[in-house]
Amino acid sequence: MMTVVLGILGSALAWIGVALLFSLAIFIHEFGHFLAARWLGLQIDAFAIGFGPAIWKRTVNGVEYKIGCIPFGGYVALPQLDPSGMEKVQGEQPGGAAEERHLPDIPAWKRIVVAVAGPFGNVVLAVALAYLIFFTPGVKTGVIDTRVGTVLEDSEAWKAGLRAGDRIVAVNGKEVGTWTDLQVEAQLMGASGRATFRVLRGGAVVEMEIPFETDRVSGIRLLADVLPETPCKVVGVNPDSPAAASGIRTNDVIQTVSSRPVLGMLQFVSLITQNGEKPVVLAIMREKKRLSVTVVPRYDAAQGRPLIGVTVANGLENVRAWMMYRDPWQQLKWDSMSVARVLQALVMPKQKGEREAVAKNVGGPVAIVIGLYHTLQVGVMDGLGFLRMICVNLAILNLLPLPVLDGGHILFALFEVITRRKPHPKVVAVLVNACAVLLIGLMALLVYRDIARQVNASKALREVAREEAAAEKAGLDKAAAPAAGAGAQP
Question: Going by C-beta distance under 8 Å and a sequence separation of 6 or more, which residues neighbour residue 75?
Fold first, then answer.
């Protein structure tokens, strides 16, 4: 009973954290606009966080401050900059156009400063979060390299020629430096799913074609039956086992077996099995010290193979894309370049099918909220890392030169600077209204697709559970390999 209560409490706290952190990202963006507008003397009608009916509002010095009941949006009403654009998107009634109140016109440079101030606020928050993660002790970060640790025999990758120890350097001509980069390229591929890999093997470059497969539950494309090289970490040592007798401890990282490099958990299990019951020398890393121990595996009748009595796991199994780099600027660079890569595929695709893949795989507000919820369940710092990535996304996307977005205001202002005349008000109104309708429609579509993905994933997960239960009941042995983060006992 207590476990259930704690689970419900943990979920409730995570959802509260989602609302607070998402609202923080919106608040800092709108606060940037607000500060710049006040500094430059612009008329400010309202400062709203959230949308829908107001749960709190107050007017101070002519500015209406309010909090909407749905905390996933916000705006600053600036009639001299945007008479009604954001209010249309938020579903509010305009508070009165600038020309109706005879408000003075403002120079183009002021409009640019106010428009840029919002994304700049997101950048400031992203940098602050990156440094908070950097200075907080114990935060887990790490990059998974593109060196292959395990390839299951009879898999498509094995048949194509991919082997443990190979380093993947490019997918479809696009260079990849991390396993995450490889996964990004997998999601941006066309419908065929077949990719040309460039692999570095012993100083020579080898090319091969391998298909990506789509995971039934998540819908994400994966390089099936292939695991990256990751540290093989000891997470448990059985008492009275050969490992315990040799002095192996929890948190040791196994680096070699009889001088053969260990590229991951599954390979280590395989090497111990191949060794049999002969003494084997293991090189391990313990608290930055390299040690050598000799272990004599003992045959286990239940497992039907020799064991040394440890439980191992891949050491970077929980490292996520938004927590790869400890260095703040290196992580911020990756955040920015990942957005740029998606925009490049959408606007200037390098290969057939990239634009369609982006349109199919891009997530909306629901996906962001669910992602933030899951990261907060992992830990607060993981959630803050995800928020940092959201802030970088918001800053870049808001600077796109589209009416209603900040980039649209900058575009209109630059037009005035270059041509020495304002764009025609009717043209601006048509563009703003059309873009507002499209943006609302796009958001509605993304929300629908996000929900549909969650429903389909739940159905697929139940089907997999039923199949596994049926197989277990029938006494069938599943030949699937353990997942990357699962423990194994050699």
Answer: 30, 46, 48, 86, 87, 89, 90
